[in-house]
Amino acid sequence: MSNEHSPDVDVKEKVDNLPLSPGVYMFKDKKDRLLYVGKAKRLRNRVRSYFQDSSDHNGRIRVMIRKIEDLDVIVTDSEAEALILENNLIKKHQPRYNILYRDDKTYPYICVTNADRPRVFPTRTVINDGSKYFGPYDSVKHMKRMLETIRKAFNLCTCAVSRKNIDRTKGAPKWHSCFDDYLESCSGDWDLEEYRATIEKVERMLNGRTNALIRDLKEEMSIASDALEYEKAARIRDSLQAVQKYSKKMKMVAGKKVDRDLFAVKVDEEINEACGVLFKVREGKLISKFHRFLKNIKHLEKGEMLQSFVEDYYTGQYAGAIPDEVYVSDELRNSEPLAQYLWEERGKKVRVHRPQRGEKAKMIRMALSNAKLLLGERKLEKEKAARKHIPHSVKELKEQLGLDRLPRRIECFDNSNLQGSDPVASMVCFVDARPRKSSYKRFNIKTVEGPDDFASMKEVLSRRYKRVMDEKEQIPDLIVVDGGKGQLSSAVAALKEIGFYGQCEIIGLAKRLEEVFVPGRSQSIMIPKKSSALKLLQKVRDEAHRFAVEFHRNKRSKRTIKTELTQISGIGDKTAKQLLTAFGSVSAVQESSLNELQEEVGNKTGEKVYTYFNGDEEE
Questions:
Q1: 32, 58, 253, 426: which has the fewest C-beta neighbours closer than 10 Å?
Q2: Which of 362, 384, 406 is the C-terminal boundary of a domain?
């Protein structure tokens, strides 16, 4: 076992004694919480790989490995069984390090009940009672259109409740009862044989088998007509026309009448989510599409996300009949368990393939475009929700300081210098109490000589907000300067000179007593020490100070390199930086022996550096 993680003795013994059988493994932390659930063709080999040095481990998995304190396994007869068990356990326990799904919505289905006289109705609840569920539908509108087609084609009742709920004593149905039954047009009174034959046709249509259904309806209509059963022939004709109308609306996407599922996954790193899209093609026609958002995907490859999406679909409540072909947008990390599972479910081999060209690749590109669109909508949803959510500290800061508007965007400034040398300044930006690092700014002080914080603050604010006006950048809600009355007065003077004063609020925060100074007010404002508003201001001020000091140190370090080491003949910035990294400072380089220098930068260069500081001979 490994340098990367040394499990305790109990876990090590468990790993060493695992069987070389298929199964599911479960990692737990010291509090017995489930960290991760995985499947394996050979349990011992797969689990052992986590505790061996491997460049395959991404950062997320390395963090997880450090938390493993216990291990459980369940042996299965095949990889396909392990696949089903793995997905069931993930859904049940939602382990922290598995890919999870955004399930804040329930999808609509059409249910055909498991009964002597099956009912057909819409539902959002899937119950494992032997009933058949068709869907899920991406929108209620598409599901309702299908139910309306079923009603028109087969005169079949599709109410969501049983006809037993009828209350005829009051001459009207109950609020939730079957209106078709009340109007005496409910199919619940049909002959049982006729009813079951109709249900069989409905299922064929729900499965997308419209071509064969149309052919059979034509044959039935011809037989009824030849037998002079004209009323029956007329009813079949109406059914035929309704099915044909529905079939024409379905988009033909394949040159031949094939059944295939096409899966695609698109990633949005900004919101750390992915979207999986499925196109269901039956008899060459696109009959439905389905999507899910994948969370917890940091550091994962597309193949892993796609595999999780596909496996979750076929082993979960969503899957209908297994198609002839399955096509994917990226290569799956390990398609063997899925292929075996599909083979066992369908009874014959199902091709799982990534198309490179032709109509199948075109369909995959279309699915990816849909996923991209859905992710864009998801991003807008999150941004809208974020805009609505205003942190308590921001609201309290407005109240404590009597500001005219909520300080949702705060820009804070700080100066840094060492006895007037290398003067710099920083600006940090907080949006809704959180740092927006992409908006941070650094400033080299250009017009001020010596350690003059007031003049430096005036220069920096003039430069910053003149640019904001010239380039029409976003104006902050609040400007914070690190300091008391003097720094605030310089900042106000700068804003007035460039015509920016009054565009937003500005305050000064003095560090000694955490006093807040406001323009035009002689007395400072003392915000309660435990207030979240004061904690927010302190956090913003401290971040500006950290950023300024870091910039100052970097600038001073570069100047030191330039004025000391780079003066040595043949020593450039790269070698100087290498020496400083190795020895820590110029004085440490000066005190190093010839051998130490030569080991770091080579014989010739090391000798030059040593000679520069020590003369021709080593002491």
A1: 32
A2: 384
